[in-house]
Specification:
It contains three helices and 23 strands. With about 400 residues, the chain is of the alpha+beta class. Helix 1 runs antiparallel to helix 2.
Length: about 400
């Protein structure tokens, strides 16, 4: 009930009680007066002077009226102060609401890229920009060190977190029939926000994860067989033709220091440094020819071509104008986003055609060499200006 309504009700009750008490007191005083004597003669008061004072309530009645008024006023004031004090106290006790932060880890996949095993994570978060998020892997309920400590941290830049963690050299092998869980955790204003997701080990990574790094098979040249050989017919004399070299990844030594980025558009997303003298594998070059996708000792990403010796280098071209994008990391092509059936694989340096995207642009439907399906945006290098032109599906 509202305090004002309660005050009005109490005031009315006090007024009725005080009025009733005063009325009874006055009535009792009038009854107590002596009866008129038998020889009483009425007096014509109209003949009296007009300045005679009129008789008012008795002194006792006046005292009672004053006491009643004071009682009512005092009760109202006390009630108002009491209710007002309680309302203020209750208002002051309400704590200031704190913002609620969330961290939703949606996918966690162990895949095999051109540079080795890697963890691909996608998450949604309301953490403030600049917050540090740490990743940890559990084997059952025990910590399992699969990546370097510095690679297991990233900084929040928006509501969508797309994160690739390279597996460290000399990593421990996994155990089959054991559950591996990725834990994301952040601390903001003294509050710990975390989420977990079971690690999905893709078929391309199973052997390397459970049995350790596999040596690259080498094919011995065929042994020539003895026997008569036909004499080739002489070719017409002409100018010698230079052999055409098919595009392929190339290993070079960086000639200057540079910064490796997650995307050449901007550029954006610093992944680490490239040092002069580092031996790197050039996987592909952006269709514009100014940026190259490399595998460096520290990380994988895009670097400006001016830092690399490019004489004689003929690597595949990735991406293209319009709705064509470069593949940044290898991964699954799925029938539906997140956990759909695996239809095929992407490989770093490939070019795909963007056909559609989901509402928050974390998954894209692409046409790739192996299959047409949905892939995580973390696997692609896309021009941000192109994303709004891709239809939402």
């Amino acid at each position: 009930m509202s305090p004002m309504i309660l005050i009005v009700i109490v005031a009315v009750l006090l007024l009725l009680a005080g009025g009733f008490f005063i009325f009874r007191r006055l009535r009792r005083d009038s009854i107590g007066e002596l009866p008129l004597p038998p020889d009483y003669t009425p007096i014509d008061y109209t003949s009296l002077p007009q300045d005679d004072p009129q008789q008012g309530p008795s002194p006792r009645a006046k005292v009672l009226i004053g006491a009643g008024v004071l009682l009512i006023v005092g009760s109202l004031v006390a009630l108002f102060v009491l209710l007002g004090g309680e309302s203020d106290a209750g208002h002051e006790a309400e704590p200031t609401p704190r913002p609620s932060y969330t961290l939703d880890l949606q996918t966690a996949e162990l895949s095999r890229g051109d540079s080795g095993l890697q963890i691909d994570l996608t998450a949604k978060t309301t953490l403030p920009a600049g917050s540090t998020v740490e990743a940890q892997l559990l084997e059952g309920d025990r910590p399992f060190s699969l990546w370097n400590e510095e690679d297991g941290k990233t900084t929040v830049e928006g509501g969508n977190l797309l994160w690739t963690i390279p597996v460290a050299d000399g990593y421990p092998t996994g155990t089959r029939d054991v559950t591996y869980t990725v834990v994301l955790q952040a601390e903001v204003e003294g509050e710990v926000i975390s989420d977990t997701q079971e690690l999905e080990i893709l078929s391309s990574a199973e052997v390397a994860f459970f049995e350790g790094p596999q040596p690259t098979p080498t094919t011995a040249p065929p042994t020539p067989t003895s026997g008569p050989t036909a004499t080739p017919a002489p070719l017409p004399t002409s100018e010698p033709l230079e052999p055409t070299q098919a595009p392929a990844p190339a290993t070079v030594v960086a000639r200057t220091a540079a910064t490796i980025y997650a995307s050449p558009y901007g550029p954006s997303g610093v992944r680490g440094p490239l040092k002069a003298g580092d031996e790197v594998l050039i996987v592909a070059k952006l269709w514009s020819g100014e940026w190259y996708l490399i595998v460096a000792p520290a990380t994988t990403g895009w670097v400006e071509g001016s830092a690399l010796p490019l004489d004689g280098v003929n690597v595949p071209v990735a991406g293209g104008a319009g709705n064509r994008a470069a593949v940044f990391n290898g991964g699954n092509i799925r029938q539906t986003p997140v956990d759909g059936k695996v239809l095929g694989q992407l490989h770093a340096g490939q070019t795909v055609t963007l056909l559609a995207r989901n509402a928050d642009s974390t998954w894209f439907r692409v046409e790739a060499p192996e299959a047409t399906g949905w892939v995580s945006a973390a696997l692609l290098t896309i021009d941000p200006a192109v994303i709004p032109t891709i239809p939402v599906q």
